[in-house]
Amino acid sequence: MTGLWAAVGGGVIVAGLGQLAATPLGAFLVLGYAMRVESRRARGASMADACLLWRAAPKVGAAVVGFAPWGLLLAALWGFAFDAAIVDPDGTAVASLRNAAGALSVLLGAHGLIALARGGRGRHFVWPVGSAAWLVRTLQDLATEPRWRWPSRPWSWPRPSEPGAFTSLGIAACAVLGAFVWLAVPVAGWAWFRGDGPGRLVITVLAGAAMVTVLAWLPLLQARLAAEQRWRAMFEVTAVRRLFRRTPLTWTAVIVAAYALTLPVYAARVVTTTSEAPAVLATVSTLGLLVMRPAVGWAYHRAAVRPTDAWRPLQWGAQAGLAVGLFVYVAALFAVPFLDVEGDLGLLAQPALLAPLAP
Length: 359
Fold this sequence. Notes:
Elements: H1 2-21, H2 24-42, H3 47-50, H4 52-87, H5 92-118, H6 122-126, H7 128-144, H8 168-191, H9 200-228, H10 237-246, H11 248-260, H12 263-271, H13 277-304, H14 312-333, H15 336-339
Helix pairs in contact: 1-2, 1-4, 1-13, 2-8, 2-9, 2-13, 4-5, 5-7, 8-9, 9-10, 9-13, 9-14, 11-13, 11-14
């Protein structure tokens, strides 16, 4: 059942991070967390050690499943109260239902806190009577033992060492600023196509070629920033080219997959107009970010520990495949300025490189 709890908990965690990413500051926090995971993966940590929420997922899933029946009961009771208020606003049933729903909310809230104090396992959330019995026993022990301590620490895990001076917000800000610096020139050249200036077709083609080049190296540069914790790492192209030559097939597969994950986000950004769109798009973008960043960190570590370059024809083939894949991606981006509500600025909303986006 651990796999089921982990799947449920992972979905809940991604949804929560998506809701957080729908806000401007929250988007930077989510990006910073994802880059922290990427940084640990780039230094050789396993996924369980790199992603702190990975270990919490089974307990979160078990807690959600265990608490779900009581949550549904509470939602149904509040729904009855709202329906009764519509049918008979001055009736006695409305006050009774609201009082019952309020009391149940308080009791279930206390039950959830006690379940966390007991250790936060799924079975602790299922039966409120067990929580009440545990609370009585705990108060009795507290009365007889002045130095009594909590019997367990819910959802605790060792925190990995974090070398470097950047905070999560700092590393996210550096990654976003560095990406803007690299993307500014090709985006400006691409915007020229919308105008009537001379030679706009030539400039647009050159801007497209520059966009392909920038998109090829930016994931590696951001991975180096995360691993090295230095601002200048965002511009060390020679170093990342050396890493690419060591594992060209790995880098090609990871980079193409990372950008392919963003195409559904762009499509949804164009067609979605409902009020829930920001949260939905931020959740989808967050999911892609949490998949892509650890994968890029793993590819960086794999290249860093390899002592020699790959076979030269293999490098050429990987570079050609990467160029073709990015050409298709950039061709798809060609329609963004005409369809996106932000116009040319929509090209800067790169969910594979920047914070999770929302319309």
